[in-house]
């Protein structure tokens, strides 16, 4: 927490979200820490910590939206280092941004986590700098990716709104995240065969 406190940005909401995420990020460790072959491990502590964080925050605040902003930061706080070590591509960064919502917040949480581990480390965070630059280049540093193909585009193509829109739009968004298209024109072209399948009553795969 000291590392976080020393790096507050002065925005009350931002510091509240990030500060609570830093406070809660290792709540899953007591349940997952064990000794294996002489090494102390805490496998899956991030995912285990999700439920514990939600319970803890429910005792502190009834603001569900605040809790919903914090939970993804807790469950993905190891992702910056993991993606950096793996040399992850753009699709992985987009998937992370879609899940966490704010890469910039996640980097702050992960940096505070790193600085809180002994031995004391220098005040640099190569993985965080790498992820920030990647997210910035993809224009998703401070927000989740936004769908290019939307319901109104399907209506413009002559489709009537209905339950069939969901699978088509989900398939398009997943393809966008994976880098299969990055313009509306290409997105419409991608959607076309899914629209045809929907018109024939076929099930549309969304992944």
Give the topology, please.
Blueprint: H1 2-5, H2 12-24, H3 29-32, E1 34-36, E2 39-41, H4 45-60, H5 64-75, H6 79-86, H7 90-100, H8 103-115, H9 126-137, H10 151-156, H11 165-177, H12 184-199
Antiparallel strand pairs: 1-2
Summarize the structure in words.
This protein has 207 residues and is mainly alpha-helical. The chain has two domains: 2-137, no CATH class; 151-199, no CATH class. It is built from twelve helices and two strands, in the order αααββααααααααα. It has a two-stranded antiparallel sheet. Strand 1 (34-36) and strand 2 (39-41) form a beta hairpin. The longest helix is centred in the N-terminal third of the chain and has 16 residues, at 45-60. The chain is elongated and about 60 Å long. The relative contact order is 0.10.
In short:
The chain has 207 residues and is an all-alpha fold. The chain is built from twelve helices and two strands; from the N terminus they run αααββααααααααα.
Helical fraction: 55-70%
Shape: elongated
Structural class label: mainly alpha
Tell me the number of structural domains.
Answer: 2
Low-confidence stretches: none
Rg is 20 Å
Characteristics:
207 residues, mainly alpha, 12 helices
């Amino acid at each position: 927490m000291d590392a976080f406190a020393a790096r507050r940005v002065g925005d009350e909401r931002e510091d509240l979200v990030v500060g609570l995420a830093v406070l809660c990020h290792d709540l899953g460790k007591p349940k997952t820490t064990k000794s294996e072959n002489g090494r102390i491990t805490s496998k899956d502590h991030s995912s285990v910590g999700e439920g514990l964080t939600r319970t803890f925050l429910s005792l502190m605040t009834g603001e569900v939206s605040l809790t919903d902003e914090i939970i993804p930061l807790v469950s993905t706080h190891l992702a910056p280092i993991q993606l950096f070590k793996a040399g992850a591509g753009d699709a992985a960064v987009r998937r992370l941004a879609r899940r966490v919502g704010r890469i910039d917040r996640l980097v702050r949480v992960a940096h505070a986590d790193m600085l809180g581990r002994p031995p004391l480390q220098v005040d640099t965070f190569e993985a965080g700098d790498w992820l920030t630059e990647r997210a910035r280049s993809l224009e998703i540093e401070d927000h989740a990716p936004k769908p290019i193909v939307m319901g109104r585009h399907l209506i413009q193509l002559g489709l009537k709104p209905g339950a069939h829109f969901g699978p088509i739009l989900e398939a398009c968004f997943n393809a966008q995240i994976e880098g299969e298209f990055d313009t509306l024109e290409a997105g419409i072209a991608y959607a076309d065969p899914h629209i045809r399948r929907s018109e024939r009553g076929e099930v549309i795969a969304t992944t």
